[in-house]
């Protein structure tokens, strides 16, 4: 069991906890589709939630849906093999409070309650599973306030709740950590009215509130929400720590837009192949036009971020994908610089300098990957000072484009020979300083 999973279980006193997922809505504004099964950035909304919760130690689920969508949810559970039972609500007209009530005999002590049509970022979930009562957001960044359910808080408990509150303190995130006592409140309201809304139950129970502010979560109600969520999934999938200056300030601004357009249509591996072929094309273009080759090489560098963004956004990352991507990048770099040297250099001395530059370029990546193999850690997270060193691949490619445009390829090879090998020396020194003991 992972450290995170152990921490999650400790938050519940060591007991196994089930997550109850309300999915009985008809999805009218989505054309009568089960909203939990709508794909955003290549994955169903519900898959994202259940997969992330499973990794946090919550591995049992009760999904409550209506009879209309029974087969769809059964197929979803079979497809991914989640440890989930399906509960059918044959009277969705009785309100989502009644939908919750149907879980009464399926949970014990504490349990998690959440909505199938909400997207939750993993950082949000890490904190939410340790909360109590209703999880609220006092400073929501990603949610339409006009559509959101507002919460008025008094003495750290829910005083009032509803979409049309004008005076409110926070927004309902649709995530709860409850105990079986909540079913007694639901039973009272159902006995009185014959139906019950979750907001009524929450208000009467005066649930405690747990504020979790500034993390990604949003309710998916309309097609516009899907577009917004897709963009957010991609933008929050940026690798970050290992990016160089050019990636942070130029490449990612373009690649994330490309990834947003492609994430529902191509796989990460397909994009890796396309990027590799485009990189080889840029290398071959040196035989035709060096300035154009430099531009295409920079474009391939932008494309190089897309496969990783798509993989992370669609939750399809794999060790093999990262492994093969790294290997293909080395082939592209070697091909480009070798052909560029072949086309522009005749003198033996300059060939020696070019070979030193090519070897140094390969060794920059090797030095970081070898660290991961030796120490089982990402060097950029383990030794933050490495991030300040110049000469990462995105920076080298951008410099290559600039020198190709001005026709100074010998100066480029001299610069790369010095830059890459100094970076490797600095990397070795930083590793020695931090790991010598």
Structure, described:
With 437 residues, this protein is of the alpha/beta class. Helix 8 packs antiparallel against helix 9, helix 8 packs across helix 11 (290-313) and helix 15 (393-406) packs antiparallel against helix 16. The protein contains 16 helices and 13 strands.
List keywords for this structure.
single chain, 437 residues, alpha/beta, two-stranded antiparallel sheet, 16 helices, 13 strands, elongated, disordered N terminus
Task: Sum this structure up briefly.
The chain is of the alpha/beta class and 437 residues long. It contains 16 helices and 13 strands. It has helices at residues 3-11, 45-55, 70-80, 96-101, 122-128, 182-193, 198-205, 223-235, 245-262, 268-284, 290-313, 319-344, 348-375, 379-382, 393-406, 409-435; strands at 18-23, 39-40, 43-44, 60-66, 84-89, 110-115, 118-120, 133-137, 150-154, 157-162, 170-179, 209-211, 217-219.
Mean pLDDT equals 92
Strand content is: 5-15%
Quaternary:
single chain
Order of helices and strands: HEEEHEHEHEEHEEEEHHEEHHHHHHHHH
Helix content: 40-55%
Overall geometry = elongated
The structure class reads: alpha/beta
Give the biggest beta sheet. 9 strands, mixed
Secondary structure elements and pairings:
Blueprint: H1 3-11, E1 18-23, E2 39-40, E3 43-44, H2 45-55, E4 60-66, H3 70-80, E5 84-89, H4 96-101, E6 110-115, E7 118-120, H5 122-128, E8 133-137, E9 150-154, E10 157-162, E11 170-179, H6 182-193, H7 198-205, E12 209-211, E13 217-219, H8 223-235, H9 245-262, H10 268-284, H11 290-313, H12 319-344, H13 348-375, H14 379-382, H15 393-406, H16 409-435
């Amino acid at each position: 069991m992972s450290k995170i999973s152990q921490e999650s279980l400790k938050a519940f006193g060591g007991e196994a906890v089930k997550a109850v997922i309300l999915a009985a809505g008809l999805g009218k504004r989505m054309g009568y589709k089960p909203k939990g099964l709508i794909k955003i950035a290549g994955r169903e909304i519900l898959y994202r939630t259940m997969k992330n919760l499973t990794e946090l130690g919550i591995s049992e689920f009760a999904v409550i849906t209506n009879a209309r969508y029974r087969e769809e949810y059964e197929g979803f559970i079979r497809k991914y093999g989640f440890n989930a039972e399906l509960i059918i609500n044959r009277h969705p007209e009785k309100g989502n409070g009644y939908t919750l009530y149907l879980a009464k005999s399926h949970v014990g002590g504490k349990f998690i309650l959440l909505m199938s049509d909400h997207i939750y970022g993993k950082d949000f979930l890490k904190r939410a599973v340790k909360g109590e009562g209703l999880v609220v957001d006092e400073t929501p960044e990603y949610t339409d306030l006009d559509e959101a359910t507002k919460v008025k808080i008094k003495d750290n408990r829910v005083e009032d709740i509803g979409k049309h509150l004008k005076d409110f303190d926070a927004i309902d995130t649709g995530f709860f950590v409850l105990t079986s006592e909540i079913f007694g409140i639901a039973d009272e309201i159902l006995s009185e009215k014959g139906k019950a809304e979750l907001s009524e139950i929450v208000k009467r129970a005066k649930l405690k509130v747990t504020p979790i502010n500034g993390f990604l979560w949003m309710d998916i109600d309309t097609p516009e929400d899907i577009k917004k969520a897709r963009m957010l999934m991609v933008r929050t999938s940026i690798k970050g720590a290992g990016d160089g200056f050019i990636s942070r300030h130029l490449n990612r601004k373009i690649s994330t837009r490309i990834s947003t357009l492609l994430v529902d249509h191509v796989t990460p591996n397909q994009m890796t192949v396309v990027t590799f072929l485009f990189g080889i094309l840029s290398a071959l273009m040196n035989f035709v036009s060096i300035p154009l080759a430099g531009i295409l090489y920079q474009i391939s560098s932008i494309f190089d971020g897309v496969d990783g963004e798509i993989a992370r956004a669609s939750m399809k990352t794999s060790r093999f994908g990262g492994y093969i991507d790294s290997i293909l990048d080395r082939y592209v770099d070697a091909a480009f610089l070798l052909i560029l040297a072949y086309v522009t250099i005749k003198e033996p001395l300059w060939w020696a300098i070019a070979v030193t530059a090519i070897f140094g370029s390969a060794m920059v990546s090797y030095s970081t990957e070898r660290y991961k193999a030796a120490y089982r850690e990402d060097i950029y997270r383990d030794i933050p000072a490495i991030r300040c060193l110049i000469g990462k691949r995105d920076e080298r490619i951008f410099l290559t484009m600039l020198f190709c445009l001005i026709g100074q390829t010998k100066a480029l090879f001299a610069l790369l020979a010095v830059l890459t090998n100094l970076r490797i020396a600095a990397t070795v020194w930083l590793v020695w300083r931090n790991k010598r003991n």
